[in-house]
Structure to design on (98 residues):
């Protein structure tokens, strides 16, 4: 129980995690490779060069692939979104391109 209390996002179960990985793998510019078929616990997942650039801060996932999502009543759309959610400070921050 103490381990669960330390989780930043305790409601991220397997189904949601696999769906997020699949979105990263099937994007126009994939950030991970996951092979063919549905992503599940048997999938071999690896970081792509683009994914590595995003993690290193040299590229931006939204600029590469665009976004079309509703988050908390806000519709994010396009490739030039002025803000991002920063997990480190758990706050909205200006994007590097803003």
């Amino acid at each position: 129980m103490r381990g669960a209390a330390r989780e930043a996002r305790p409601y991220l179960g397997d189904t949601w995690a696999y769906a997020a990985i699949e979105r990263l793998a099937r994007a126009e510019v994939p950030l991970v490779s996951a092979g063919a078929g549905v992503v599940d616990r048997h999938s071999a997942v690896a970081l792509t060069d683009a994914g590595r650039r995003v993690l290193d801060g040299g590229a931006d996932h939204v600029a590469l692939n665009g976004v079309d999502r509703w988050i908390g009543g806000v519709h994010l759309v396009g490739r030039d979104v002025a803000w991002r959610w920063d997990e480190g400070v758990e706050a909205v921050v200006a994007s590097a391109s803003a």
Summary: The helical segments are 2-5, 14-26, 49-56, 61-65.
